[in-house]
Task: structure prediction
Amino acid sequence: MKKKNLFSRMCGWVRRAFFGGSRDLANSIDVEEVVTPIQQIIRNFLERRLAVGALCVVIGMFLLVFIGPLFMPRYYDSYTEVTQKNVAPTMSMMKVPSELKNDIKMIDSYGSFSVGLSNAGKVYVWGATQLGTTGIDIGEIPEAVLNDKIAYVAAGIDHIIAISETGKVYGWGSNKHGQYVTTDKEVLEMLEEAEESVSDEEAALLEEAGVSAAEESSTEGEEGAEGEEVAEAAEEAVEEVKEMDKSVSTGENIIPMPTELVTGTIDVANIKKLVCGYQCTAILMNDGKLYIWGNMNAYQNISSFVDKEGLVDIDFTLNYIVGLTEQGTSIFTGKRGLYDQYRSNINTSAKASKKFLNGRKITSIYATNNHLCGLLDDGSLFFAGNFPSDSVPMPKLHDGETIKQIGAGTYHYTALTSEGRVLSWGGSTLGQIDVPDTVNGKTDKVLVGSFQNYAVDANNALVDKWGLKGYLFGTDGYGADILQRIIQGGKMTMTIGAVAVIISTIIGIIVGCLSGYFGGAVDIILMRVAEIFAAIPFLPFALILSAIMAQMDISENEKIFILMAILGILTWTGLARMVRGQVLVARENEYVTAAKAMGVREGRIAFRHILPNIVSIIFVTLTLDFATCMLTESSLSYLGFGVTYPRPTWGNMLNGANNSTIIKNYWWQWVFTSIFLAVTCICINIVGDTLRDVMDPKSDRDK
Amino acid sequence: MGKYILKRIGYMLAVLVVLSFILFLIYNLVPNNRAYTDAKAEMTTQKTRLRNATAEEKEKMFEDLYVEYQRKYGTDTKNMVVKYLRWVGFMPNYYGEYSGLVQGDFGYSYEFKDDVIDVVKEPMKNTVFINIFATILALGITIPLGIVCAVKKGSKGDQVMQVVTIIGYSLPSFVTAILFVWIFCSLLGWFPPSGMKTPGSNYTGWKWFTDRMYYMALPLITMTFCSLGSMTRYVRASMIDALSLDCIRTARAKGVTEKAVIYSHAWRNALIPIVTLVVGWFLGIFGGSLMFENIFGINGMGKLMISSLRTQDFDVVVLLQLFYVAISLIGNLIIDIVYGLVDPRVRVSA
Result:
């Protein structure tokens, strides 16, 4: 009895004196509350913190994968993006360094990182700077560049070119495909180090993993005879340079950087444009002279541009180089029929170039990865190329409003109008055209990266930025966001697991009940069938079935359903046996005898009287089987026999992580998926185990 | 006892027949036709001779060849049962020859240009080797661990082990494998990530063995680790059951030392379920090693099976599948017999 203080004792006396002592008596007797078994189970379950935590995680996962997809309207399974392949987890793609924020001269990006230049001539690099395929960190700007005053910068997919005010051309990043040639000791050392860290064999594997854009582009179209001659000439030049400078590691199909740029300087005042493409670079001079070098495989029409004179503008799409001649009547590509259908907006119909221009002149061109836009001398715009169906058309300009400045990203355009409005249109998949309202009227210049936009005011300070911030979990070998695929993949994995478990539970319950309740011949036959199924080696059998299914001419959805059925049919035996055992025990109970005496039908007794009494056990098995089915599906998909790409599941997302170099260099491609899969399975198992413990009245959990 | 064993063997054979028939039916779903392929191949070898033949003649010749090969392989009938019996070797083909599984004709691998039986030999050896090795390792760790957990049930150590083992058996084996490759190959650089031996080496004797073990170490560690979780839990559970038996209380009451109680009284009682599980689990890892063989590039049955499935070399697949089925059935038979030996009640009721 607790010792009470004097005051409460007094109160007690008074109360008892007037109201009697029944209440105190009731309190002092420890009456055990009567609870139903379900309540008892819930109570016991809630006492276990680990299990409750696990349950919360499981529910959280469910919500994530089933509600998450609603928030990703732009997601689709077969999404690929060449310039965003194997990007490490980062959210810094749009994070302009604070020193640069108030003094922006230019910003450029092509792939996963951006390079910026301040008016003071300082270079800054941000974004995902680790180039996975080469082991190079492009964010390590060479000392020579940092110490020099830079006038121009441009970024390619894995290299950066900078030109100093004195005319020296710097390059850093990867130079495996002739992106640049350098004599800078520091850069050479960096390359060597990277070379050491990634041995040749590993590099080959990595190259394979990241399907190179060059391969893709080389399958399209054929080269003209004229082009070949030039290519030969270029190859000879390659040989020369190779002898001269050994820093170019491979000589296959590259156009080398002009030697006068490697050793000498360039006339900076005369530079009109510096632009980088996939693995190529072009410098256009005011007098029409063009320096161009890089990977020939990436751009099939590059040979038409070597020694080309008289261009006034140049830009890179993904597969082609586009130029503008002085006449301004058409876009020069070195190929007939390429980009010669113009339209006034993305969603309008195209016309032949001559008819469309009708005497007007093209003054400048801006190319995205698969289409381009040009500015005409009357201030209007035209578009050419293939526009994906989800491209957003250009917003209408007000009367008398003209485009003041325009820039092209990887799939979108951003323009500044004479009224100070900022407009973005084109590809919208990564949020690159969601212009904030704050920039209108304050902007003096818009700078466009690959998927990022920066609005800069008259004082060269950053007003606002919009576009792709980065990927929380990085991207996979196809350039798709791993977080989104994890959510979609989880939906698929869990659906398959759940349906498979439901199928197996239904079969298991029916067979178990029938077998246990009727006994005799039914029991013997059903149990023999169950044993045959149990004797089937699970994984090999599932493999052979899915391999055969893969050859059949059926749709993807049907395949997935058959997969669920296979998993369900191969796993019911355990449950059937357990149900049978439980039914055998329950059959002897009095209430069954009573039901029989009342003349209840046998089937009704089995399913309505006995089944509810063994529901708890079924529930536990169901939980544990769910985890097993998820694991099996993942294993099958991991081996390439379950659900196949492009449909994501947690299993086939790990498919790529089957060699040590990818495991090491692209860690984000397996770590996050593994964590989701493992945590889900572990938590489901913990919940199931705990349920089994708390449901078993015999389990002595107090011990 | 003899009658019991005979009964089980008879039953096992019946299941084998049913399963092999199912397998055969599935195998026939595959649009892979050996007679057709061979007839086509023969046509191409005789191309020069057939240069002047008309299309009709060629057609005719191909038909004849096709029928001939069908007769040879016993597929010249639509009757599945007849086909099956010929495949097994219980019925003669058109020419009165018996050539089936019973006669040792397991088919031909188009991928390896060799009889299936020769293709399968080497991988089978490797698989059996790593599986037995992994089993020994796993049992050596899990049994003592399980016993200690059961004896010290509820202690801090036991609770930690409960969580660790639940993680162990919930982790997909391939995730564990990826994790281990990352830790031991990429970070620490202790083991090679894949392969069977140093490329280009031709060691013999002791050197061969150490080289082999160097390459096998990581797969073995991973396999052992993957089986730790579930086995430890089984051992612990059955040991706990055994420790709560009346005979244990009696033994303790008599003043038998705790050591003797645990290792001689309780352990023997716990052994019955464990033996079943060990056998069953040993069979399970044959299927499970499929995963590891593929990840670590071990030339085993699982790898062969996957590659054959990819190249649609179905004769190989069927033989491997039959092997897996046979292993599993033999395992069940062993379990039954052991049960019968240890527990007389089973014999009586069966």
